[in-house]
């Protein structure tokens, strides 16, 4: 006798593995490639059959469906446990970035199999609204994309939903601008003449004159400065991180790339800044307070307490300088009923960016500038040249104004 076909509450015939619960929900049960029974649910039969089709496609393509049930936060922990050959500082950065923005987001608790590109775009849009810079979002994207790609490579999801999700933000990142000459000179003049901030003047001038990364500035020893041959030997970077779970400390680390280790000329301006820095150190007695880091002492840049220069210190000083200048400028403009000349946000990286731009504007050839900047990839250097060329074209074109007379 033929077995009666199962039907739902609307009389529709159900396929093998399908059923309908008393609450009206539909259910599909199947055996995965490991011999384990699995179940999915849906509110409608049409929705259930879409899920069935996806499961069958995944089985044919070798996609491990169960792995897709992990939330993004759960998979991130698994992903990090497999990353063995990375620096402690990189591992610390990954975990810190994830904890700050991705873990507490709606994306963090979604199953990786359910994440679509629109969800990733929503995360980036939310971060922009909260005031995160495009550059910071780019850092989040690198980590998120790498994590999701690991899920693809492990056959847990079919494709990486982070791919292409940064369109629109990329343009803002690539257009991160350097200071104009007027902004640069205004900021330096204010800092130099400020009783509160002039102690930072030598460091800012040196950064603008060399293009060193903030970690390279912090890791510079007086032994790395050849005052006779006028050379700077860039050999290490200094970081201030919680690498071992015992709290933030100073650590010496190798440079980011092989190209980072370089010998660059010491200009007259940079040399004067160093002499001023040494003068301040002697005046404030900083050297007597200095503590070694990894057995190294005699760091060029110390704070007022005699400690090494944490990367965050320069950014904090720049924020305070800009805030103080803009406050004074607004007050003066209001008094004189004029238009204030306000300074934009400035960070240690923007100082480096500004040096690179000034060098390109001055005609330093691209290969030499790549070496001075420590860029492993010449395309990073070329971005500055392309931008400078656009500005030059605009300036030159303005000279043609008035060639054609119209009534």
From TrEMBL:
Output one GO BP term: DNA recombination
Q: Where does the record place the Core-binding (CB) domain? A: 70-152
Which keywords annotate this record? Answer: DNA integration, DNA recombination, DNA-binding
Q: Where are its TM segments located?
A: none
Recorded GO terms, molecular function? Answer: DNA binding; integrase activity
Q: Which CDD domains match?
A: INT_ICEBs1_C_like
A Pfam match is Phage_int_SAM_3
- DNA-binding among keywords: yes
Tyr recombinase domain residues are 174-398
Q: What does this protein do?
A: Site-specific tyrosine recombinase, which acts by catalyzing the cutting and rejoining of the recombining DNA molecules.
Q: Which PANTHER family match?
A: INTEGRASE_RECOMBINASE PROTEIN MJ0367-RELATED, PHAGE INTEGRASE-RELATED
UniProt lists the family membership as follows: Belongs to the 'phage' integrase family.
What is the protein name stated in its UniProt record? Answer: Site-specific recombinase, phage integrase family
Instruction: Tell me what organism the protein belongs to.
Output: Blautia obeum ATCC 29174
